[in-house]
Amino acid sequence: MKYGILLVCLTTILVGCSPSVRVIRYNNKVYTTTTAVDVFRTKPPDRRYDEIGELEVKSKYDDAVELLVEKAKEIGADAIILMGDRQSGALAVPIGELVYAKSIMKLWAVAIKYKE
To answer: What is the pTM of this model?
Structure first.
């Protein structure tokens, strides 16, 4: 019975933590969706651009980049600049007399639109 309750609790926690991308816009401009997004991991592009806003997601790194790219397409970005990760808390699950703890990390990026 105890394990059934634990399984229900863990499932609820994991489903509640399904990744979604948060967008913090820097302006009110609306852009048409794009079909391709460049990803810059180390430095910004050499061309001129406007910053649309920040994108933030909680997920594994590879999945997170893909989620950020999809959201960037939706808001009309031409590229994202990965800014790194931030710790946003921790999840602790008691297992008998032990506690399993896992840091919750958020990957964030700046969405940009190239200037013509």
So the answer is: 0.71
